[in-house]
Specification:
With 130 residues, the chain is mainly alpha-helical. Helix content is 78%, strand content 0%. The protein contains six helices and no strands. The longest helix is centred in the first third of the chain and has 24 residues.
Length: 130
């Protein structure tokens, strides 16, 4: 199990580090968006901060996973990004290959969250810690 967790952590870290950096440096071309995806991107661009926040979270989470530092925190940072990636590819850009990759990324996140589940247990406690 440790080998699978290590491989999942490194793969997930690489995905988010590389694609997060690409959001800032634009070294990989993006496929042309569908009309709905283009409208969504236009709205994000109009905010002037959303892309920086999204790609910054991806780089931070990816670096933490690659360095094996604060892995549960990295998983929490990346969870909403992954949910949005999955929703984006289901509703706005249902390209089968990209949707498959989104599900693989979600599976890697879930595997790691399950492995580190003891770290998340206090979040689901009804008794506040003092």
């Amino acid at each position: 199990m440790k080998i699978a967790v290590t491989v999942a952590r490194i793969l997930l870290g690489l995905v988010f580090f590389v694609f997060g950096l690409n959001g800032f440096l634009h070294f990989m071309p993006n496929p042309p968006p569908t009309p709905a995806a283009g409208a969504f991107f236009g709205a994000l661009i109009a905010t002037h901060y959303m892309f920086g926040l999204i790609f910054g979270a991806q780089v931070l989470g990816g670096v933490l996973l690659l360095l094996n530092v604060a892995v549960p925190f990295a998983l929490v940072v990346l969870a909403p990004v992954i949910v949005n990636i999955l929703a984006f590819h289901i509703y706005l850009s249902p390209v089968p290959m990209q949707l498959a990759i989104a599900f693989i990324v979600m599976a890697l996140e879930l595997l790691l969250a399950w492995y580190y589940r003891a770290n998340f247990a206090p979040l689901f406690s009804s008794v506040p810690r003092s």
